[in-house]
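step 4 of 6: structure.
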Amino acid sequence: MAIEAGSVSVVSVGATKTEGGTRAHKIEIGKKPQVAFEVWDTAPLDWPEEFDKVFAGSLKDPFSWAEKCVNEYKAKILCVKLQGAHPDFENKPPEACAKFISQLLKKVDVPLIISGCGDDAKDNLVLPLCCEAAKNERCLIGSAVQDNYKTLVAAVLADEHNIIAESPIDINIAKQLNILISDMGLPLERIVINPTIGSLGYGLEYAYSIMERARLAALAGDRTIASPFICFVGQETWRAKEARISSEEFPGWGSETERGLAWEFVTAVALLQAGADMLVMRHPKAIEMINKNMGTLR
Amino acid sequence: MALSGLDIYKLLPKTNCRECGFATCLAFAMQLAKKSISIEKCPYLSPESKVRLEASSLPPIRLITVGEGESKLQIGNETVLFRHEEKFHHPCGIGFILKDSLSDEELKKKVALINNFQLERVGQHLSVDLIALKQEKAKSRFIDALKIVLANTKLNLVLMSQDPVALKEALVLSSGRRPLVYKITKENLSSLLPVIKEFKVPVVAESNDISSLSELTQTLAKEGIEEIVVDTGLKPVAQKILDLTQVRSLSLKKSQRSLGYPFLTITSESDNYAQTEEAATYISKYAGIVLLNHFDPACVLSLLTLRQNIYTDPQKPLQIEPKLYPIGKTDKNSPLLVTTNFSLSYYTVLGEVEASKIPSYILSVDTEGMSVLTAWAAEKFNAEKITEAMKKFEVEASVSKKSIIIPGYLAVMSGDLQEQSGWEVIVGPKEAAGIPSFLKNIN
Ligand code: SF4
């Protein structure tokens, strides 16, 4: 590859028994690229029907969904999105979210990435409780953003997790946020950058070049931007029109599932070339393919 | 590659005679380095200096043309390793390999499928560029198959044959189409060279490693053949990426002329999805041409879109002309939506408006190609700018309801806009996907 991951920091996620946790293994983000399966704490409303088929109806039960990813599809790490906490969704109370995380940690033994619902005010209530519920498990928790990072950083520090720092396709904000977070005492080596990618055809090239630039700067010795990247590929690709409209409306271009799959793994392939370290993806087939692709790149 | 101003100065007569129009030789050298003037302006250059200066003004990676006419493929002439440093100039060609062992019927069907694969995306025309016909059978079958291909497509051609007799006949048949010949190697050099020389067509030079590849292209250059596309043959993806990267960086950073050609890749994975991933990898990293074996519409759509993304100019977002666009059979009561002139924003809204089947107007405001939120932050898409655009494009003449729908993310500007434009402001959905149901509800 054109960009080597030589001087990017390695963020270790998941604490094993010897490290005081209960995870079966740990995942080192920044060493070689890897994939996390995206699961939710509640049944998604707007995912294509295809997912109901693939997960055989288990989307309604987050625990069996997560277990399916781990047991059947051999997920090595899960990314749990706490969508149910969103005020416009189910508005689950923070305690319920924390309880969900504790239970999930008992059901599966892979490391966890925990992603808030995206509503800053609510996440500030939910994520600290989840950090506490997952104490000693060394999760990756997100997202801290430029105007809302203090609460999360404090919680992550208190319970010894890692943090996702999210910046809107902007290298300077990414650096700035990394500095702000490390100024609070969380070392740069525990930060993973979310550069907010767009999917194939929907702004992919912006994050692509931001990631290349950041990686070049990191290799040139800039420690403030030498964090690994996490890319939320699944959530972006399955919103794309190409992954949604039926073949009746768009004849001659394959089914929406075929298009969606291609959209998901091609987006991921391109981001790998730009330096992605952790890909959060949805469809098991796309994940199988991207694992294969990563195999060919080694 | 390019010489610096001082390097050039050393090659000049240093007499400051001013005949070039500059006060000093150094001033002239600086202009030459910027490529803003021609070396011909100095009449006193020594022949040796002239040769060196001419060589340095050649592009580090040659521009190669395959095909003729409007849909010809031009590749190469790249100047950077990373698109943010400038841009990638010539989108790589994407093509499919068809074997002459296919039956006439199959061949026709496949050619038609590939040929008809065309669509508009974000205002650009996307299509496959090449059909590569591969010889597996005797010469007569290859020629018959070529006739079918020639008769059924105007797409650019690659002739995959190493049989000089078959190639010669094929090149006569495809005269005026300027096909790319695949491939010349050290082993077949003596038999293919005369054919390539006679027909003056571009050729793929293949050698397994980079140093022998460089020798091969030098041999070809001595024979006057410089319309070359290079390849390093069948090898694992990781090694291929290494070759692609090395060839690109040696030609750009080390001025290695003998490697300054576009690179051809052929996918080796047999599984359809795996070959798509392999092709996507090559598109991202420096391929000039990507040939695939298996044609699958959904996968090709994703690859053409990826190529479009990678080759977009990072300094110049795709823009459309700002104006009032009527969509469908609009009348005075049709709803009016406003968005930016960033192609992606406009075409996303357009797609959803079309899907709603409700005739509407879209007002595209000149935001210099910035997206909704970026333009809002940069004050290119606020109440004032939108009001200006409404006046400029005389929306009042087209829409009688005097109400305008703004993107959901910009709800904050509704008061201002209402005040400045005097129109009723309706806050639309945040995501374009919500437009169809939104339009149905307000109707
Ligand atoms: S014409 Fe040539 S010699 Fe005379 S000043 Fe210009 S560069 Fe120098």
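step 5 of 6: annotate
 - Residues 1-5 of chain A have pLDDT under 50 and may be disordered.
 - Residues 24-289 of chain A form a domain with the TIM Barrel fold (CATH 3.20.20.20).
step 6 of 6: archive
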